[in-house]
Amino acid sequence: MAVSCRNLLKTYGTLAALNDVSLAIRPNEFFTLLGPSGCGKTTLLRAIAGFVSLDGGSITVHGQRLDGLPPHKRPVNTVFQSYAVFPHMTVADNIAFGLEMERWPKRRITTRVEEMLRLVQLDGMAARKPAQLSGGQQQRVAVARALAKGPRVLLLDEPLSALDQKLRTGMQLELKRLQRETGITFVFVTHDQREALTMSDRIAVMNAGNVLQIGSPEEIYERPAARFVADFIGEMNFIPAEAAGGCRYRLATGLELDASEPASTGTPVTLAIRPERLRLGPISADSLAATVQETVYEGTDTIYYLAMTNGDRLRAREQNRSGSLPQFGVGDKVGLTLPACSIRVLTA
């Protein structure tokens, strides 16, 4: 494994920032630590980098134990949220800085800087100062400087959060390209679910110092293992129900639905379904009756805010076709169809 974390513990007073965290990151993988503020993701990244001392557990990078090694002796490098480029240095000097500290020969440094400039697509900007660059270009300089020394693992601590949305989207694609071209393992920290789904090979969802689920973006989105994961990733509807045997579930309204997963009869569960998987139409014996309380037109989609007869609230998302208008308005009575294959059964 590129990075192996075993039983990591870190506390700050009574707060468990890392609560017996174990995970394995593969070589040449874009791996994302995702979660809300305070979940432990940055603490974990900084522990790998050597900026945080652990209370227990061990970390290895490509089989090398990192215990006791200072940050500059570890085979990793870090890109921070606040670019951290030196304003008085040129782009080339910024990239060369770490190489000069390690006393690389000047000719080798020049060659390496040129390679990094091409890699991050900043050819012709070697003599510019950071003040002459956009935010996205400055972040590319920071990435180039971190990659110049050839780390076996690159750690990225919310490096795009200071960029505006357009630059951020462009840099997401750039970072994914860089990871693919260099073959270096990237460990990326973010609280942005869309960013994690866009960029990652695998995602670890964290909360309260624990890793709740690790999987591909598709697995995390389509098959969340816990209610927190389902609620944190994208939009989700939650419907209380009781297992009625096999894959059958009874709602509070008395209506029974089929899902693709079984549970023991009588078990209280939560049925989770994405808004885009709900289907709106006329009320029928097999549909959930609801009333449209609000519609929100978002250009590509229309969001319907719905109230069921027992007072539960749901959201449905429908894609807008060319030239079409939302088919239902406020106050309309509608029937909701929930495809069995789209329902996730959560017991925790």
Features:
348 residues; 8 helices; six-stranded mixed beta sheet; 2 domains; 24% helix; 20 strands; Spermidine/putrescine import ATP-binding protein PotA; elongated; Rossmann fold; single chain; ATP hydrolysis activity; P-loop_NTPase; alpha+beta; OB fold (Dihydrolipoamide Acetyltransferase, E2P)
Task: Explain how this protein is built.
- This protein is α+β, with helices and mostly antiparallel strands and 348 residues long.
- The protein folds into 2 domains: 227 residues, 3-Layer(aba) Sandwich (Rossmann fold), CATH 3.40.50.300; 111 residues, Nucleic acid-binding proteins (OB fold (Dihydrolipoamide Acetyltransferase, E2P)).
- Helix content is 24%, strand content 34%.
- The protein is elongated, with a radius of gyration of 25 Å.
- The two termini are 31 Å apart.
- It is an enzyme of class 7 (translocase).
- Part of the ABC transporter complex PotABCD involved in spermidine/putrescine import. Responsible for energy coupling to the transport system.
- Keywords: ATP-binding, Cell membrane, Membrane, Nucleotide-binding, Translocase, Transport.
- This is Spermidine/putrescine import ATP-binding protein PotA.
Largest sheet: 6 strands, mixed
Portion in helices: 10-25%
Query: What structural category arises from helix and sheet content?
Result: alpha+beta
CATH architecture of the largest domain: 3-Layer(aba) Sandwich
CATH fold call of the largest domain = Rossmann fold
For the record, the CATH class of the largest domain is Alpha Beta
Global shape = elongated
Order of helices and strands: EEEHEEEHHHEHEHEEHHEEEEEEEEEE
Question: In terms of per-residue confidence, which ranges show pLDDT below 50 for 5 or more consecutive residues?
Answer: none
Number of helices: 8
The N- to C-terminal Cα distance equals 31 Å
CATH H-tier superfamily of the largest domain? P-loop containing nucleotide triphosphate hydrolases
Rounded to the nearest angstrom, the radius of gyration is 25 Å
Could you give the count of β-strands?
Answer: 20
Strand order of the largest sheet: 6-7-8-3-9-10
Mean pLDDT comes to 91
Q: What portion of residues belong to β-strands?
A: 25-35%
| Count of domains | 2
Domain ABC transporter: 3-233
EC number: 7.6.2.11
Pfam families: ABC_tran, TOBE_2
Function: Part of the ABC transporter complex PotABCD involved in spermidine/putrescine import. Responsible for energy coupling to the transport system.
